[in-house]
Design goal:
Blueprint: H1 26-38, H2 41-58, H3 61-73, H4 78-127, H5 130-136, H6 138-180, H7 182-188, H8 191-229, H9 231-237, H10 240-293, H11 298-320, H12 322-351, E1 363-370, E2 381-388, E3 393-397, H13 404-412, E4 419-424, E5 427-428, E6 433-434, E7 437-438, E8 440-444, H14 454-458, H15 467-476, H16 498-512, E9 516-520, H17 530-540, E10 544-548, H18 552-556, E11 560-565, E12 568-573, H19 575-579, H20 585-592
Parallel strand pairs: 3-10, 3-11, 8-9, 9-10
Antiparallel strand pairs: 1-2, 1-4, 4-5, 6-7, 11-12
Helix pairs in contact: 1-12, 2-4, 2-6, 3-4, 3-11, 4-6, 4-12, 6-7, 6-8, 6-11, 6-12, 7-10, 8-10, 8-12, 10-11, 15-16, 16-17
């Protein structure tokens, strides 16, 4: 890539648990949700007004039905009954219209908030140090942006609108019952203790269960992704049974937790049903007493029973939605953890931005060691001491697994050394900035091209670049823009060639203009492609360049060659100087490559 690369090299294949990304508290998740909704406050206010009006209109219906009962019992004219029926129909139509419009506005408001949440999570993930994201593992990141976002989306699309209507209905219905007859409202409260106990028991049991389930699903995904990503290695070493056993164990653990949450949910729903029966019985009993003792009309008692029935349905909806809300809250906490971690990382960078600006691209490594995880069999780098002057080009060579890519990642600031220091221009490499951006950019062998035009892909490196600047950068790396239909506005074909992808990545470096560029296998085809080799030299001019070399063209253009073996520097010097050492490591690799390719 012409920006910070997202690939991992030389990683350990150990089975140690990943250091998952942070999860926030419920309070922090609620504050983030409130912040997102505040951005939509005017739409939210309109929504609340419509839902309140719709609920108020619906609450007119029970008293009207009670009057119909009294009118029939009292033998009143049929015309009055018809007017009352018309009033019921009008109230129902008005309530449906108002609640329908309010529901649509509420979903729109919440979807805007969800879209902002997705953007915040994505921005935060990009702000986190790459090493931290990689340590968490692909499955943790994927589960957050899929399962957790899905849980929040389901709540936003269905559960939260339902709960909003339920809350309005409960509050206004209790007011209506109190106006009708306070004792009927008191009778309805008999169901409350049962509901409270059922809800508290469910909340206490389900919250840790859902949090645990999210972690177990992430672990199951990690085991599956690891087996699929390493399928060739698994097949070659015959370890399929071990990986299948790991997947089965992770799946079984998640299934057991699913069963526990199911049992907790069933007990909860049973408690709500019991509360409904007790409450309705209490309302009818009190209504009978009030009718016989103080002359409360049958219609009023009927209206009270209907009020309770209307009251209990939203209560059941509200409490029954706790299951979905718990899952959504667990997901929102995981998403908020990423957002807050990203915000803290950006704040830290902003606070130290001016102090981390480098004066030049000089690179210094002192006693650098690095290990991929505590359980890695050996260190990838051990005791590396290296100085690279600003503007120099250094070629790193060595056999596979010698530590070249690990060293490149440390210089690019993707990882921090286990021991020692890596500095660029006197600043720690992972903090070093130039113009507010990373001081070192890495171009890897695999370059990602984003959907969009050629210009869109280039402006990732320089958002304010003009079309002429983009065209000049492409010309400097040998990219023939005339071959692309639409020019800068055109798109690369899906099967873009390696040379074109690398040229675009190198053009990004020219546009970003960092003091340090790290070319990790970026020129793996440069030996057979003179234009790509020339493009790499153009990118290296005027800046410090660290090149993982595979071809003589790259070595010949280097000021110095550094030979790595098993994580150590075993030889370094000018190319011609090293070739004059017939028993040296560089000469040996040169001869092994047939004197033409490394």
């Amino acid at each position: 890539m012409g920006a910070r690369n997202l690939g991992r090299a030389d990683a350990s294949t150990g089975t140690e648990s990943a250091a998952l990304l942070p999860t926030s508290t419920a309070g922090a998740a609620a504050r983030l949700g409130a912040t997102l909704l505040w951005r939509q406050r005017w739409l939210l206010l309109a929504t609340v007004a419509l839902l309140l009006l719709g609920t108020s209109a619906m609450l007119v219906i029970p008293p009207l039905l009670g009057e119909i009962v009294d009118a029939v019992i009292g033998g009143e004219p049929f015309a009055r009954v018809l007017w009352l029926v018309a009033g019921v129909a009008a109230a129902g139509v008005l309530a449906a219209a108002l609640e329908g419009i309010g529901g649509v506005l509420l979903v729109r408001c919440l979807q805007h908030a969800l879209a902002a949440l997705r953007e915040d999570v994505f921005e935060a993930a990009l702000s986190l140090p790459l090493g931290r994201v990689e340590a968490a593992g692909d499955a943790d990141v994927i589960s957050r942006v899929t399962n957790d976002v899905e849980a929040v989306t389901e709540a936003i699309s269905g559960v939260i609108p339902l709960c909003a209507r339920a809350v309005f209905t409960i509050v206004l219905t209790l007011v209506g019952m109190a106006v009708l007859d306070p004792w009927l409202a008191v009778a309805a409260l008999v169901a409350v203790p049962i509901q409270i106990v059922s809800t508290r028991v469910f909340m206490r049991r389900s919250r840790p269960l859902y949090a645990r389930l999210r972690r177990e699903e992430a672990e199951r995904g990690r085991a599956f992704v690891e087996a699929v990503a390493g399928a060739e290695t698994v097949r070659a070493f015959g370890t399929a049974d071990e990986h299948l056993a790991a997947i089965a164990a992770a799946s079984d653990t998640a299934v057991r937790t699913h069963r526990e949450t199911g049992r907790a949910r069933n007990i909860f729903i049973g408690g709500l049903n019991g509360a409904e029966f007790v409450g309705l019985a209490a309302v009818l009993a009190v209504g009978f007493v009030r009718a016989t003792a103080v002359g409360l009309s049958v219609g009023a008692v009927t209206a009270g029973a209907l009020y309770f029935h209307r009251l209990f349905n939203p209560i059941g909806d509200l409490l029954g939605s706790m299951d979905d809300l718990q899952r959504a809250l667990a997901g929102l906490q995981r998403l908020t953890g990423v957002v807050n971690a990203g915000a803290a990382e950006r704040a830290g960078r902003a606070a130290g931005a001016s102090a981390s600006e480098v004066a030049n691209g000089a690179i210094e490594l002192r006693g650098v060691s690095y290990r991929y995880g505590a359980r890695a069999r050996r260190a990838a780098l051990r005791g590396i001491d290296l100085e690279i002057q600003a503007g120099a080009t250094v070629a790193l060579i060595g056999t596979s697994g010698s530590g070249k890519s690990t060293l490149a990642r440390l210089i690019a600031g993707f990882d921090e050394p286990t021991a020692g220091e890596v500095r660029i221009g006197g600043m720690l490499a992972h903090e070093a900035r130039a113009g507010g951006r990373p001081a070192a950019l890495l171009v890897a062998q695999e370059t990602h091209m984003f959907a969009g035009s050629i210009a869109d892909n280039l402006r990732i490196a320089a958002p304010g670049a003009t079309d002429s600047e983009l065209s000049q950068a492409l010309a400097d790396v040998g990219f023939d823009l005339a071959l692309i239909e639409g020019g800068l506005a055109g798109s690369l074909p899906a099967a873009v060639s390696h040379r074109e992808a690398q040229q675009l990545a190198l053009a990004r470096v020219l546009l970003a203009d960092p003091p340090v560029v790290v070319l990790d296998e970026a020129g793996s085809q440069a030996g057979s492609d003179a234009s790509l080799a020339q493009a790499m030299r153009r990118v290296s001019d005027g800046r410090t360049a660290v090149v993982i070399a595979h071809h003589l063209d790259q070595v010949r253009g280097a000021d110095r060659v550094v030979v790595l073996e098993h994580g150590h520097i075993i030889e370094q010097g000018a190319p011609d100087e090293l070739l004059r050492r017939p028993d040296g490591a560089f000469s040996r690799l040169w001869r092994m490559a047939g004197g033409s390719e490394l």
